[in-house]
């Protein structure tokens, strides 16, 4: 890390400058020195530095001026001030202007090294934070969400409009469809991307702790509240809070949540002091909230507050075109993780996956692909490598995906596939005797032969 850290030393005294350059180079840093403020600013603009160490009093520039210009042109650069004219006033002013630290002459070299090391650590943490945030943004770009089908393209189109607003969003979809993924994509592609994204699963937190978890509490608010705690809403301030399984929220907390949405403020448990918030609320549910309202289990006014912009994620069985690209993605991911050659599906295995109803949706598909990569020996995945329920479903349906989806279905191809499988099964059971196979299928022998020719089944 030290060798990659570039430090600029601005010191007008040549002897002091050369001594400091030598000492810090010996520590492992990449050092550049100059004797004037103007030369220092020129070098900073031309080469860029992680840290600037500058004397407060230079022949042509005041160190505070240099600090101000550095913070304007390179806000990620840390500045350490050195002076032989120490005073509390100049120290305070330097720190207010954004100096990392302040050290006086005569210099204590060990103290300077410690300050420089701390500044380097801060720069490294900032760079890592920027890198991780970029990774998050890249991960949740719309282009990285797999969905070539028409229903998913319609969803992406809606999401692109949503990110331009700050409205409350309600994501609707079955379990396993990727509701949190959509919520993150809305956040990380919108204007709040640099601010927190806080996810809360309302069904996973015990009811007696949920209020404190969401809204925070004061010290002594209840037994066990030994210190003050910030709630999830406060933690999400200026960012986005994602309330998953919102339909499980108890009625008394629905009332409190409604007030938070209306007033844009929260009160911690045990306090009557309102805390102003600027939070975008995205919620999700796999239940029909309108029906829950009619049953008296969910507040109607809260439903309308949450349902400003509804987003419906289609179940996997309605987006069959996405099964192949999703499967390839999960296979590649797990093969890489388990350090084995890339695996792929044969035609029959893919047809079986496309014929399966996927009650667990994308999450179920992902889990199955992980299991297959872990347990299958070969690189080609066949029908028999799939879980028994998928294989059984495929065989019971005649081996072809016959469910009609919004994308439509190739009925002629599906019927042909069913005929092919039934004829092959009958021929196998009859020992290849066509007359017996035809009888099993309740057709005459000539019809069987015609079908075999049409379907490309060998006659002998």
TrEMBL record:
Start and end residues of each Sigma-54 factor interaction domain: 145-374
GO biological process: phosphorelay signal transduction system; regulation of DNA-templated transcription
Domain (Response regulatory): residue spans on this chain: 6-120
Lineage per the UniProt record: Bacteria, Pseudomonadati, Thermodesulfobacteriota, Desulfuromonadia, Geobacterales
Modified residues annotated as 4-aspartylphosphate in this record: 55
Name the record gives this protein: Sigma-54-dependent Fis family transcriptional regulator
Keywords: ATP-binding, Nucleotide-binding, Phosphoprotein, Transcription, Transcription regulation
Claim: Cell membrane is one of the keywords in the record: no
Stored InterPro entries: AAA+_ATPase (IPR003593), AAA_lid_NorR (IPR058031), CheY-like_superfamily (IPR011006), Homeodomain-like_sf (IPR009057), HTH_Fis (IPR002197), P-loop_NTPase (IPR027417), Sig_transdc_resp-reg_receiver (IPR001789), Sigma_54_int (IPR002078)
């Amino acid at each position: 890390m030290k060798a990659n850290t570039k430090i600029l030393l601005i010191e007008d005294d040549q002897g002091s400058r050369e001594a400091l350059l030598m000492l810090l180079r010996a520590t492992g840093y990449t050092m550049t020195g100059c004797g004037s403020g103007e030369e220092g600013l020129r070098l900073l603009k031309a080469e860029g530095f992680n840290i600037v160490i500058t004397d407060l009093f230079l022949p042509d520039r005041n160190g505070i001026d240099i600090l101000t210009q550095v913070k304007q042109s390179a806000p990620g650069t840390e500045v350490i001030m050195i002076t032989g004219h120490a005073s509390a006033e100049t120290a305070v002013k330097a720190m207010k202007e954004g100096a990392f630290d302040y050290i006086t002459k005569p210099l204590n070299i060990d103290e300077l090294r410690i300050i420089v090391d701390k500044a380097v650590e801060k720069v490294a943490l900032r760079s890592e934070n920027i890198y991780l945030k970029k990774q998050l943004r890249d991960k949740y770009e719309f282009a990285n969400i797999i969905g070539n089908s028409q229903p998913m393209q319609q969803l992406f189109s809606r999401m692109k409009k949503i990110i331009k607003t700050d409205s409350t969003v309600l994501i609707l979809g079955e379990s396993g469809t990727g509701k949190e993924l959509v919520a993150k994509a809305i956040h990380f592609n919108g204007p709040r991307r640099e601010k927190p994204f806080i996810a809360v699963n309302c069904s996973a937190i015990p009811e007696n702790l949920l209020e404190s978890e969401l809204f925070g509490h004061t010290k002594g608010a209840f037994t066990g509240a030994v210190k003050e705690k910030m709630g999830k809403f406060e933690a999400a301030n200026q960012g986005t809070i994602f309330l998953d399984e919102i339909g499980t929220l108890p009625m008394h907390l629905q009332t409190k949540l409604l007030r938070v949405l209306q007033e844009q403020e929260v009160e911690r448990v045990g306090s009557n002091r309102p805390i102003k918030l600027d939070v975008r609320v995205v919620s999700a549910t796999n239940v029909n909230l309108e029906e829950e309202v009619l049953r008296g289990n969910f507040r109607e006014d809260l439903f309308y507050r949450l349902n400003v912009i509804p987003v419906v994620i289609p179940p996997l069985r309605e987006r069959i075109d996405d099964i192949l690209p999703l499967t390839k993605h999960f296979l590649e991911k797990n093969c890489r993780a388990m350090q084995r050659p890339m695996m792929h599906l044969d035609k029959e295995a893919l047809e079986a996956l496309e014929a399966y109803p996927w009650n667990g949706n994308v999450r179920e598909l992902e889990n199955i692909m992980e299991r297959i990569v872990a347990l299958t020996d070969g690189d080609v995945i066949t029908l028999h490598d799939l879980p028994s329920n998928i294989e059984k479903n495929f065989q019971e349906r005649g081996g072809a995906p016959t469910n009609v989806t919004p994308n439509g279905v190739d009925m002629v191809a599906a019927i042909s596939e069913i005929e092919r499988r039934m004829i092959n099964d009958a021929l196998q059971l009859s020992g290849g005797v066509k007359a017996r196979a035809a009888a099993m299928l309740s057709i005459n022998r000539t019809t069987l032969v015609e079908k075999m020719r049409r379907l490309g089944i060998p006659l002998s």
